[in-house]
Amino acid sequence: MKMGIFFGNLFWGILLILWGVSLILRGFGVNIPLAKVFFAIVIILFGIKLLVGGSFKCTTGKVYKETKGQFTEYSTVFATQKIDLTHLKPGDKPVKVNVVFASGKVILPDDVIFDSKLTTVFGSLNTPTRSYSGIADTEQVINPGADGDKVFMELNTVFGRTEVVLEQVERLEEEAPADSTAHEDQVF
């Protein structure tokens, strides 16, 4: 089920306007409890969604994958997911991983260097070498000891938890084509 009400421009636009207005009013000595207003809006939108059709289900085990030209995007929303990216090879096109109101485990191959842009908003993000929580926006190279070209990865965690792990992968060597002329010159 799509949750467009919560991830559409209208919801976040209203939230940002309320936040901006509360900051302006705070300058004039008027204090608006933004957290209470935010949660009240979420409860109201849940109620409206239930009235006009549908229920909310927490899915487990499904990762939404979408290829958008230059990158592939994996999204987890309101669920617990395992996102297996061990199929990536050095030099592959960029990937974007979003974990929103969810818990995700991102599995990366140990033979690829990932040049990563990591963002977390009111969540936690654990990489093999560092942990981030609260609000963070940083860049990190994951698995710098691997050989080959880098793969760019953008990883966003919003109101959730993401764990990044490296897993050893066995890649099959591509067989070289047999040289057919070698057998013609041999005498038995």
Explain what the structure shows.
This protein has 188 residues and is an alpha/beta fold. It has 2 domains: 4-52; 64-167, no CATH class. It contains 3 helices and 9 strands. The chain has helices at residues 4-7, 9-27, 34-52; strands spanning 64-68, 71-77, 80-84, 95-100, 103-109, 113-126, 131-142, 150-158, 161-167. Strands 1, 2, 3, 4, 5, 6, 7, 8 and 9 form a 9-stranded mixed sheet that branches. The protein is elongated. Mean pLDDT is 76; it is low at 54-61 and 175-188.
Supply the key terms:
188 residues, alpha/beta, 9 strands, nine-stranded mixed sheet, 2 domains, single chain, disordered C terminus, elongated
Reconstruct the topology from this structure.
Blueprint: H1 4-7, H2 9-27, H3 34-52, E1 64-68, E2 71-77, E3 80-84, E4 95-100, E5 103-109, E6 113-126, E7 131-142, E8 150-158, E9 161-167
Parallel strand pairs: 2-4, 3-5, 4-8, 5-9, 6-8, 6-9
Antiparallel strand pairs: 1-2, 6-7
Short description:
The chain has 188 residues and is α/β, with parallel strands linked by helices.
Major beta-sheet overview: 9 strands, mixed
Give me the count of strands.
Answer: 9
Give the ordered list of helices and strands.
HHHEEEEEEEEE
Terminal Cα separation, in Å?
70 Å
**Helical segment tally?**
3
Strand content: 35-45%
Principal-axes shape call:
elongated
